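Why do we bother with holo predictions? Because pocket geometry can differ from the apo form. Keep that in mind while you read this record for pyridoxal-5'-phosphate.
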Amino acid sequence: MSTPKLTIDLKKIEHNTKTIFQLCKESSIALAGVTKGTLGMPEVANAMIRGGVTWLAESRLDNIKRLKDSGIKVPVILIRSPHLSEIDRVVDLADISFNTEYKIIKALSEASIAKNKVHNIVIMIDLGDLREGIWPDELRDIIHKALTLKGVKIVGLGTNLTDLNGVIPTTENNQKLVDLASEMEKEFGIEFEILTAANSSSIKLLELNGIPKRINHFRIGEAILLGRETIAREVIDNTYQDAFVLTAEIIEKKLKPSVPIGDIGQDAFGNTPKIEDKGDMVRCILNIGRQDTNIGGLIPRNKNIEIVGASSDHLVIDITKAGDLDIGDMVSFNLEYSAFLGAMTSPFVAKVIGLTDKL
Ligand SMILES: *Cc1c(COP(=O)(O)O)cnc(C)c1O
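The structure, written out:
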């Protein structure tokens, strides 16, 4: 088996999904499993489906294509705004798309009409995180115009918090979405099927029963994949944090000093290292580096191993307190989201379905 490798435990993903699904169900919220972090990996999507999700959500069309080509039948939402340059593919591949620009909605409508289709859209509202979303006082105008388009149907409203600026979901900002929905429904005589409010940063509020009644749809990635909510990265009860484990191989082991010898300039990435003198240490090099993952998001599974540093292809660890490890031995890491995403997207990291207990 080639290394480095990322072991993906589908049983743990299914279990985590069941936990989140149950939480959502208690508040009558439908759950979309967000697969973007896995590049739309069908095995992961199917584990989520076994765990209860009735929707999938993806940021990229290529990933949606991968899901659909594998035979997955549950509806897939495109959660990043469609690109004008690939409108046709959006209509072909996405069952719903999230939208914030009239120009794009109009293009979606034209493309749908040409294909004898109606494309479902959710309009995203910015409630303060300042990433995607139209400003609340522009909602009336965009709905008014979109309702005249024959090729699109507005199936709901949504919002996304926390991802860019860390804005914390509250009952109040969620209620704002509900109020806007009621206002628009009254004004235009329409009814929204979906009010989609949340990503993994809303799990805490959900546990506290703080989600307003009418919110009926969540889109959850990290909490399912890594078992943490995303405001303080706290562990969610009854979930695993090691459904994904990264393993690399020891390619050098030497007793060396902890402090470099010579004058210190910049390292390979333009930083000037400040190094504490811990005396001599047993240092190992692993065959993994910044081309493969985000080093800051690696958590050694062996608590006695310490990460010293990394360049593009080399990760140096201190195994002084870790006992007997040798050339060719494997070292494994649990992953924070940044390291998970890096490993998942690196072509150099083999992806292997397996059990992460038996590493
Ligand atoms: C990524 C994303 C999600 C899922 O976020 P997690 O924190 O992984 O749960 C939900 N909605 C939108 C719009 C996203 O971009």
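Residues 169 and 202 are 6 Å apart (CA to CA).
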